[in-house]
Amino acid sequence: MNFLITGAAGFLGATLANHLVREGHQVRGLDDLSTGDPKALAPDVHFTRGEMGDRPKLWTLLQGVDFVYHLAARVSVPESILYPRDYNDVNVGGTVALMEAIRDVGIQRVVLASSGAVYGDQADSTLKESATPNPRSPYAVSKLAAEHYVRTIGALWNIETVILRIFNAYGPGQHLPPSHPPVAPHYLRQALRHGTLVAHGDGSQTRDYIYVDDVVSAMVAAATAPNLNGLAINVGSGTETSVKELIHQVLSVTHSKSNVVYNSQTSGGVSRMKADINLAKEKLRFTPSIKLDEGLRLTLQRDARFK
Ligand code: NAD
Question: Taken in order 178, 179, 185, 188, is the CA torsion positive or negative?
Answer without folding.
Answer: positive
